[in-house]
Design brief:
Distance between the termini: 113 Å
Number of helices: 14
Strand order of the largest sheet: 1-3-5-4-2
Largest sheet: 5 strands, antiparallel
Number of strands: 11
Shape: elongated
Radius of gyration: 29 Å
CATH topology of the largest domain: BirA Bifunctional Protein, domain 2
Oligomer: single chain
Length: 425
């Protein structure tokens, strides 16, 4: 058995809804509710949340008050619902949470069965349960005791990082829920960082996406970004992150941001030597006269090159990366020349489906209005090409700038003249 006690969350609502949505999708089912007034399946989602909120309000100073504990079992273990619930209760008692309200969900969306336990750190008297080093000092002995008591497959050594080695020339694409997440992700990351050439996190992600893996550095201003942290996640069939993110430092070889930056430096010269070949083949695909992005990618496939489009949260494409399968090199489109950047490629398909139209399926009236407005600098940047760039730039620079502020008195042509005193009689 593997137990995880992640950093407590701030929003109990998000944690409960995560599990409730899994139940609605048929990817999880209710196992039990302890220290609640009703059975878990007899309560509405809001009732469960409200029960936690009332307890958390006893200690308003504690913001991160919602642990989301995970117990994972080996795929070979076929445990009944009663046995899993007994294990969950034994675990909660062992770590000192037996008097706390908690919900237990059994998830079946991965290769191995596992439980999610939602609880609170706030006791009935308003005090907070300390969690410093709880994983190593408290959870670890409890886990070993439960493994022995129920005859479970031991977790000791199952994540032996040095034992996971990948010498495959082509690591397997991960299908979430059908394989063991940690081992599969570790093998992909280890193989990609050892075999492929990349000089940015974006280029690395262009490669990892081929195997349904993604590296996250955190949003600007987040704690992950400020601490230069890095997580790896598995992507589902829809391209969205699935499961629990895994810290880079927890993977074999520790492929952290510091490690990647050293790889960037090592790869620059190797990447430069491959640019000419990639540029020649991408140029050949363009000379075949593809009418849209679909035809363009088909031409690139013949040259063993994959085109990876990058989109923002609204679905708009903002960049393109070329992945050369022959030299295993990822290259940003701009690195091949202005005519091979996203803006230049979009301009070539004017009047036919562009890259933006090809990847943006759910358009809104606001998006259509944005398309019609072509006088903004943002639109210029998105549609730049060497042929029309100078003319568009001059047009933008020569546009009159609206002036909402009143003209300063010193610059006004309408200044009042001094009134002369009438001559003295």
């Amino acid at each position: 058995m593997v137990d995880r006690f992640p950093t407590p969350r701030r929003s109990v609502r998000k944690v409960v809804f995560y599990n409730e949505n899994k139940v609605k999708k048929g990817e999880a089912f209710y196992l039990g509710a302890v220290n609640f007034p009703k059975e878990i399946d007899a309560m509405a989602t809001e009732e469960k949340i409200e029960h936690f909120i009332q307890r958390n309000q006893l200690n308003p100073i504690c913001k991160a008050n919602t642990p989301h504990i995970i117990l994972s079992f080996d795929p070979s273990e076929k445990l009944s619902n009663d046995t899993m619930m007994t294990i969950a209760m034994g675990c909660m008692e062992g770590i000192g949470f037996n008097d706390q309200p908690y919900l237990v969900y059994a998830h079946g969306d991965t290769h191995h069965p596992h439980l999610h336990i939602v609880t609170t750190l706030i006791r009935a008297d308003g005090s907070r349960i300390p969690t410093h080093n709880i994983g190593r000092e408290i959870c670890e002995p409890v886990r070993r005791k439960i493994e022995e008591q129920f005859g479970l497959v031991r977790a000791q050594g199952r994540r032996n990082k040095s034992a996971i080695k990948s010498n495959e020339a082509n690591p397997k694409k991960i299908k979430y829920g059908q394989v063991e997440s940690y081992r599969s992700l570790a093998e992909v990351v280890q193989a990609v960082t050892a075999q492929y050439i990349f000089t940015t996190v974006g280029e690395l992600n262009a490669i990892l996406k081929q195997y349904n893996v993604f590296a996250e550095t955190g949003k600007k201003g987040s704690r992950t970004a400020e601490n230069r942290g890095l997580y790896y996640r598995i992507l589902g069939a829809d391209g969205k992150p699935r499961g629990v993110p895994i810290k880079a430092s927890d993977l074999p070889g520790k492929p952290t941001l510091k490690f990647l930056e050293s790889k960037f430096e090592q790869n620059r010269e190797r990447k430069e030597s491959n640019l000419k070949s990639i540029r020649t083949r991408v140029g050949w695909a363009l000379r075949q006269g593809p009418r849209n992005v679909r035809e363009f990618t088909e031409m690139l496939d013949k040259e063993d090159i994959k085109a990876v489009l990058w989109q923002n949260e609204s679905g708009w494409a903002y960049g393109i990366t070329f992945l050369d399968l022959r030299t295993k090199t990822a290259v940003n489109g701009r690195d091949l020349g202005r005519d091979m950047g996203l803006g230049a490629l979009q301009a070539q398909w004017s009047g036919t489906p562009s890259l933006k139209a090809a990847v943006h399926k759910n358009r809104t009236p606001d998006d259509a209005a944005a398309d019609r407005y072509s006088g903004s600098a943002a639109n210029y940047a998105d549609n730049y090409s060497p042929d029309i760039g100078l003319a568009r730039l001059l047009e933008l620079l020569l546009q009159p700038i609206p002036q909402d502020d009143p003209i300063p008195y010193e610059l006004s042509a309408q200044r009042n003249k001094k009134k002369r005193k009438p001559p003295t009689p």
